[in-house]
Amino acid sequence: MKKIEFNDIAPAFYSVLSIVFALITGAVILIFIGKNPLLYFGQLFFQGMFSPLGLVESIIKMAPLLIISAGLLACFSAGLWNIGVEGQFLIGAVLAGWSAPTLASLLPYPIYLLSVAALGAMGGMFWILLPAVLKARYDMNEIITTMMMNWVAINLVTWLVKGPINDPTSVPAQTALIPMEHRLSMIPFTSIHIGLIVGIICLFIMHYVIRKTTLGYEFRVLLSNKRAAFHSGMNVARITIWGLLISGGFAGLAGVSDVLAIKGLFQGDWNPAYGMTAIPLVFLARFNGWAVVPLAFFFSFLSVGGEFVARDQGVPIFFVHILEGLTLLFFAASEYIEKRRAF
Amino acid sequence: MNVPPLIKTAGITKSFPGVLANDHIDFDLFPGEVHTLLGENGAGKTTLMNILYGLYQPDEGHIEVCGQKTRIRSPYDSLKLGIGMVHQHFALIPNLSVLENLVLGFEGGFILNMKDAEKKLKRISEEYGQAIDPHELIQNLSVGERQRTEIIKTLFRGSEALILDEPTSVLTPIEAEELFQTITTLKNAGKGVVLITHKLNEALAISDRISILSLGRKIAELNGDELRSMDEKDATEKILNIMFGGKPIPECSLVEKTISDQVVLKLEDVEVMNSRGVVGLNKVSFEIRGGEIFGIAGVDGNGQKSLCEAIGGQRELVSGRIRFRGEDISRKSVSKRHEMGISYITDDRMNEGCVLDLSLAENAILRGYCQPPYSRFNIIDNTVVDRFANKLIMDFDVKATGPYVRTGTLSGGNIQKFILARGLSTEPGLIICSKPTYGLDARTVNYIQELLLEESKQGTSVLLITSEMDELINCSDRIGVLFNGKIMAILDKCDATPEKIGKLMLGIEE
User: Fold this and answer.
1) What's the DSSP call for residue B406?
2) A214/B57 touch (CB, cutoff 8 Å), yes or no
3) pLDDT digit string, tens, across residues B79-92
């Protein structure tokens, strides 16, 4: 039996520590705005985690986070910063909303599901193709290009559902409703859709890909030393494009999952902005697929619980974003401390 | 001596995961002396100097500067205390002038006062006999002049103690001679100089004291005058005895080898641009036959890198052709050339040769990760990789605790051994070796040279780029001299003399 040393669990320790510090700081902020932190966090935890309704809701919300994180694992571990998850998600979602009602009536259920998923994933990949090529070919900063593509996506999908793919039978700008029997099926005996399982599978596949495959190896070399990658004959451009395409594809897939399982259609002004949650999440997990799962649960519980509490205690829902932000801030601080410890 | 030492370390201890880099080291430097540090790779010289420079904090022990106990928390502290360091790699900004580089970081206030700075520079130049044009851009200076600028920089900042880390490794013989004069001037002016070197003859020529480190401990301190009063050979032997504990250094065996008639590498009018977009190689043609070691001499930055990369495949040819075993490889990719049997061992170990953040095992397959047995169907076989890395570590006696250590924790010399081990493991047909022994200790240098000779005896061709004159002449069968991207001349081993090569290196034709 191997003795567990502090260095082995240090990453987990620091991540948990940053969450704890974020909650404490959150409590201080609550006191300043005249709310009772004990009451707030009490209800947050009780309703988000310990009530059956909250728990199920939190678990359902994990699905898109898990799927997106799976893709981010790939690009982040190659040192490529896809900040445009939101846009790729929307493109995947709008493609699903548009194609699902038609394809459902033409194809048998499993094939229909796979084709919509493939379409959405390809949509996400397509949306990051331009930034990927610009990065690979001209070393143009992908943080900026992917972020700009977000805005293009947000406006594009709004325009699409107002015009070209609008469902003329309904008043709001949206696509046709997908009938219940064509939605994503549930995990047996629960009201949780199979997106969760898809997410976990994607995550572990990517976890494995990064650690065990040649592509993952190329990613890791690229992250730490691009010159060594080039010197040893790796095709840096190809690796860059793959890293970004994979992350875009998974983001598109997450969009499909949400439309097919929860929304049932695509609405013009719908944008859950999962990217802003998934990006810090993957960092907190230190690019470790296993660690993403509990953290995704925590973040999704925060947003579900936050919604409940917002209604009861008049603390804006945005407060959970503050908690998320604080977590990341403390995480950055902990990384600094850890680096200092190493010397 | 009544004067307190400029620098004194007492019981300095520093450990890194898995290694004790410094083990209770006592070291001191007095004004007006040259104190040389000798030691094997990984002996702890660099760590000790980095502690003095404020990059690392010692775990134990303390530092005294001019008799005052002090703590050095950063390079800035170190500079303020009068310790100046000249690294192997210069920290100068190429597109700024000498003067601008000097005031860098010490601008003093919001408005630059270049007039005063220039006056100060002039004073220093005169005092120490260091002529330099203050308005020349660094990029137009030779390596020797850049080094001089670095030394002036430390003086400019009022350093009393100068640490020179392997200063001659980048210099031509003539420049090295000038450097020694500079060091003597500094010494006579009352400055203290710490010289880190691997070259015993330099240490013997110039040191007042020589300290020898081994495995993190200081094992001897010798008096320079005493050594100089001995026969040179005896003195060298004495030092080597202490350094390697009597283990004999293998003599380079001079067994006759046969060079085959088969041309392995052939360059025909090769032209490439270097990384700055200027002509890097200018119509270079030569050929290397099987079992031949072809040496390339030249002052750094005269096209060596371009030449390596043109053959290795990292740099595109503008014109010309490269043939390997008769096949045109001018347009082939790096990995393709590697598969064909060209192994390029770069001199930029830290930035190109390996990934410091990854483990030795992961670095072992940097070239071969796509091929069996290291990976099958794109899945990497970790057991095979670990075994392979372990073999490299064992065969080349790399000082590392195992294949899982982060490469960045190894000393420079051990990283080089590992990279060489990897480069030779594929049994290549052609080895491009750029400064393979740069910064290594005498025993490792011998070992590596022996290894290259051994490889060539088995029919492998070697392109040996080196700035060490001895290595060049001892190892090479023929020598090409690069100047300004051009091959000035190709000399046979028998008529290559240091003087002849030295002249050609500076572009002087017979």
Assistant:
1) B
2) no
3) 888 888 888 777 78
DSSP B170: G
List, as one string, the DSSP characters of B265-290. Answer: EEEEEEEEE-TTSSEEEEEEEEEEET
Q: Are A192 and A186 in contact (CB under 8 A)?
A: yes
Cβ-contact A319, A26 below 8 angstroms? yes
| Segment B304-329 mean pLDDT | 92
Q: Tell me the H-state helices in B377-505.
A: 382-395, 412-425, 442-457, 469-475, 498-505
| pLDDT above 90 for B18 | no
Residue B388 tokens, joined: 């392979």
Q: What is the mean pLDDT of residues B222-251?
A: 74
Instruction: Choose the mutation target among B378, B384, B418, B419 for the interface with A, i.e. most A CBs under 10 Å.
Output: B378
Please list every residue in chain A whose beta carbon sits closer than 8 Å to the beta carbon of residue B352. Answer: 227-228, 231
- Going from the C-alpha of A278 to that of each of A65, A131, A325, the distances in angstroms are 6, 20, 12
More confident residue, B455 or A244: A244
Contacts of B231 (CB under 8 A, 6+ apart): none
What token pair was written down for B448?
């590596």
Tell me if A149 sits within 8 A of A127, measured CB to CB. Answer: yes
ipTM given for this complex: 0.82
Interchain CB distance below 8 Å, B56 and A214: no
Q: How far apart are CA A168 and CA A278, in angstroms?
A: 35
Query: From the CA atom positions of chain A, what is the Rg in Å?
Result: 21
Distance of CA A205 to the CA centre of its chain: 16
Closest residue of A to B352, CA-based? A228
Q: Confidence band (pLDDT; 50, 70, 90) for B235?
A: confident
Q: Rounded to whole angstroms, what are the CA distances from B342 to B169, B337, B485?
A: 27, 6, 22
**Mean pLDDT, rounded, for B352-367:** 92
Residues in chain A: 343
Q: How confident is the model over A136-169, as pLDDT tens digits?
A: 999 999 999 999 999 999 999 989 988 888 777 7
Smallest CA–CA distance, residue A49 to chain B, in Å, is: 39
Q: What is the pLDDT of residue B252?
A: 47
Q: What is the pLDDT of residue A1?
A: 45
Contacts of A8 in chain B (CB under 8 A): none
Map B466-491 to HEC letters. Answer: CCCHHHHHHHCCEEEEEECCEEEEEE
Question: Whole-angstrom Cα distance, residue B40 to residue B139?
Answer: 33
The 3 state secondary structure assigned to chain A is CCCCCHHHHHHHHHHHHHHHHHHHHHHHHHHHCCCCHHHHHHHHHHHHHHCHHHHHHHHHHHHHHHHHHHHHHHHHCCCCCCCCHHHHHHHHHHHHHHHHHHHHHHCCHHHHHHHHHHHHHHHHHHHHHHHHHHHHHHCCCHHHHHHHHHHHHHHHHHHHHHCCCCCCCCCCCECCCCCHHHCCCECCCCCCECHHHHHHHHHHHHHHHHHHEHHHHHHHHHHHCHHHHHHCCCCHHHHHHHHHHHHHHHHHHHHHHHHHHHHCCCECCCCCCCHHHHHHHHHHCCCCHHHHHHHHHHHHHHHHHHHHHHHHHCCCCCHHHHHHHHHHHHHHHHHHHHHHHHC
pLDDT tens figures, B276-305: 777 889 899 999 999 899 999 987 778 888
B372 C-beta neighbours (distance < 10 Å), count: 10
Closest Cβ–Cβ partner in B346, B356, B380 for A212 = B380
Query: For residue B379, is pLDDT > 60?
Result: yes
Local confidence band at B111 (pLDDT 50, 70, 90 cut-offs): low
d(CA A173, CA A159): 9
Cβ of B367 under 8 Å from any chain A Cβ?
yes
Output the pTM of the full model. Answer: 0.78
Residues 6+ apart with CB under 8 A from B453: B252, B253, B257, B293, B475
